[in-house]
Automatic annotation (TrEMBL):
Annotated Polar residues bias: 32-43
Entry-linked InterPro entries: ARM-like (IPR011989), ARM-type_fold (IPR016024), Armadillo (IPR000225), ARMC2 (IPR038905)
Ranges annotated as biased composition (Basic and acidic residues): 148-159, 178-187
SUPFAM superfamilies: ARM repeat
Protein name in the entry: Armadillo repeat containing 2
Organism classification: Eukaryota, Metazoa, Chordata, Craniata, Vertebrata
PANTHER family given in the database record: ARMADILLO REPEAT CONTAINING 2, ARMADILLO REPEAT-CONTAINING PROTEIN 2
Disordered: annotated segments: 32-239, 553-573
GO terms under biological process: sperm axoneme assembly
Superkingdom of the source species: Eukaryota
Amino acid sequence: MASMDGKREVCSPFIPRRNALRKTSAEIVSEARQSLRVQSTRRPFTPRDGHRQLFGKSYVRADRDSRPPSAFSLHAQNFDAPDSRPGSGTRLSPLDHKPKFPVLCDAEDPFKSFPKTPSAPLEVKKGPPGMRARLLRTGSLTALTPTEGHKQSDNKYGCKEQSYPSPGQKQLPAKRPPGTDKTEGRGGPHKPGPRRTASESRITQPGVDSGDGLTECTAGRKAEQGNRDITMSPEEDAESSVWNNMIAPRLQQLESVAAGGSEGSVDRLCDLCDGLRGTLAEADMLGRRCKRRSGILRTLFRLIDLDSAQLNLHIAELCLALCVSGNNLLNICKLIFQISRRESNDILFQNSSVIDSFLGILSNEDVSTSGEALLYCVGTLKFLSGNCAILRLLLEKNCVGAAQKLIQRLCTAADTDFTIAGHILVQLTATLRNLADHPDSRPLFISFSILSELCVVLSNHREDPDICTNVSRIYSKLSSYSECRLALAQTPNCYQLFLELLNKHHQKQDLVVRLLFTLGNLAAESDEARWRLFQCEGCVDSLLQLYDTYQRRDDSPHTQPRKGPPRAPPGTVQQDEDVLVKLVRVLANMCIHPAVGPALASNATCIRLLMETLELRCVQESEELLVNVAATINNLSFYREDSSVLRRSQLPMAKLMLKLVLSSSMDAMLEATRVYGNVSQSKNVRDFIMQNKVHQFVVTLLDSKSTEMCIAACGVLTNLAQDPPNRASLSGEGAIAKLVDCLRDFGPGDWQLVSQVCQALWNMIGCGPEKLLDTRERESLLKILTTYLDEEAALKWIEDDDVRDFHRACWEFEFLPVAQKLMKTLQPPDQTA
C-alpha cells in the first residue's frame, strides 16, 4: 500500500476489485457498496380516475367520434323478445331472386311437404269445411310476434295461444319474398297488409283441436301431420309439467308484482327472479335447453323499465344463465355496464354470478361476432376491479387466466376487427393494471405469461398511445419485483420494443416515464439485462436524444442549439424532471456492466448532458435528479481508460459537485462525496478541494452516524493524504482523532468501514517523517488494533454460522492486510524486529 520511501498505492473505497481468478464474498459485498451501485427511484404515480367511463379524459385516442359511448339509454324495447336469431350480430340482406310462394318444409324430408299434384293429395285428415282452402291460400301462414298486437291465452298444454288481430287490423300482403318474412323470429316489425275478412283473420294450426289459434309450443310441427292427434315425448311431457306447475306461475307472479308497484316490490321481484333461476336449474332448463325460453325472456325484459339497479342485475344474471346472444347479449352487457358505473352499486356484484358469467364471456366469445358486447363486459370488470373486495374476488375466480385467453384472440383478430379489438384492449389492460396492485396477482401474471403476452399487444398496437400507456403502467408496477423482472427480461425483443416506443411516443410523458422506469428496473437486475439493452440497435443514441428533448434549458445565448426531434409539449417542470430522473437512472444502472461503462464514459454527449444538468438545476428544486446524476458520474468515474471523456473533465466536474456538498440534502452530500473520492485521484482535483476548504467539510462527515457517509469521507481523506502538505492540514482539522473514534465506534460490526479507516490512517501517519500522533493516541490505536486482530475475539459475538462466515471473509480479505501494515508502523522498531 505504502512504503517508507514515499511511494505508495492509494486505495479508493469506490473502486471495486475485479478478480477473474478468485472472487471472494468480501469482494462481492464491496462491489455492492462501492462506487458501482444500482440506483433506485420512486415508481411513477398513477392518479385514480374518479369518473367511471370507458375512455376517460386522459385517453388520447384518434377515433374519439367513433368510439363506443359510456352513457346511453336502455329500455325493454331495445331487446329482441324471441332471442331466436343467430348471435352473429349482423342482419342479413334479402336474397336477390324472384319471389316464390312459401311452402312448408319438413325437417326430416324437405321434399315431403312440397305441394303435390291432384293425383297425390296432401296427407291430412279432413277437417272442417274450408280448412284445406285456408291452408293452401298464399300468405295465410304468418308468424306474428307477441308484440304485433295478438292476444294470448293458455291452452290445455300450458302453451300460450296467439290470437291474431281483428279484421280491422292490417296484415301482411298476400305475396311475399320466398320463405317467411325476413324479420320473422327476430321481433322486428312486419309490413302492413290489406284488410282481411273475419274468416281469414284467424287460422288454426293443424293438429290442434282447441279452436282457432296458433300455439307457441306447436308452431313448428310438420304440415303433413294435419289435424291428427298430437303425441308428446316423455321429455316434452315433463317439460310441459314443469312449465305449467312451476315456471308459468312464477312468471305470472313477476308480472303481477311489477304491475302492483307496491313498496318493497323490488326486493320481492329480486326474490322471484332468484326463485325462477333455481327452478330452471333444478329442471335442467338453463342455457338454451328450455324450448319456451322466449316467453321467459319477454317477461324479464319488460321488468327492465322499472329502472332498479338491484332488480336489473338479477334480470341480467338470469338472462346470462339463459345464454342470450346477439343483440340481447350486447344489451345485457350494456345494462350491467350501466349498473357498474355507480360505485355505490359495487356491493351488488359481490354475491352475484354476473362476474362468473362475464369471465366465461371473456374466455369464449368471438371478437368478430360479439366485439361490442366484449367491450362493455371488460369495461364493467375494469370498474369493479377498482374495488378492493371485488379485486380479490376476480383473482380467486381466475380473471387473469380469462384475460390471457381474450388477449390471444384479440391479437389474432381479423383486420376488420382491429378497431374494436383496440377498444377492448384499452379496457382489458386497464383491468390488468388494477389487478397488478394486489400481491396475489404476481404469481398469476407469471404463470399465465401475461408479461410476454402484453409485449405482443404492444407490438401489434404500437400506434395506440392509450394501450401502450396502460401496458407501461402494468410493467412499471410489476417490474419492481424480482420474479416479475426475471419473467419480463426473458421475453424476446422486449428491450428493442421499449426503445421503439420511446422514439415513437417521445412526447407522451406518462408513457415515456413508465417505460424508462421499467428499463431502469431491468438494468438493476443483472449484467445480462444491461448488456442486452445496450446491444439494442440505437440504444444509447435513443436515450441521449430523449435526454436532450426533456432537458430544460434557459434561453441564454450560452446554451447550445438543440438537435434531434422537436421538444416535448410544454408540461410542468416536475413532469419533465421525472422523465430525466428515470432516464439518468437507466444510464447509471447500465454503466455497471464492464463493457457498457467505458462506452458511456467515452461518450461526449452523455458527459455533456450530465454536466449540463448539474449546471442548470439547483438542489432545492431538483434534489432527486441531481442525486441520480451524481451517482451516474460516480459510476462512470470508475472507468479510467484513456478514451474516457469524464477522465479529462474531472476538474470541471469537481467544481459542479461543490454545490451538492454544500447543500442541506444529506443524499446530495453523500453522492458528491463519493464522486470526490474517485476524482480526487487527480492532483488538480486534490488541489481544488484543499483550496476551497472542502476537506474541512469532509472531516466533519466523520461525525456522522451513517456508515455510508463515513466510508465515503474516508475515501476522500485517503486520497488527500497522498500529498505531504495535506497531511498536516488534515491533522490540524482533527481528522486523525475522528478516524480513531470511527474505528472504536463501528468496530467489528462493519469490517469494510474499519478497513477503510485503517487505510486512511496508514496514508496519514505511515508515509512520512511527520509525527502526527502523540503517545496517548498511539497507545489507544494500538490497543484497538490488537483487539481486532484477534480473530476469535473479533468474531465471537456472532452466533449465526452463515453470518459468521460472511464476517470472517470480510475480516480476512478486507481488514487484516491493511491493519497489519498499520500495526507494524505504530510499533517501536525493537518490537517490529
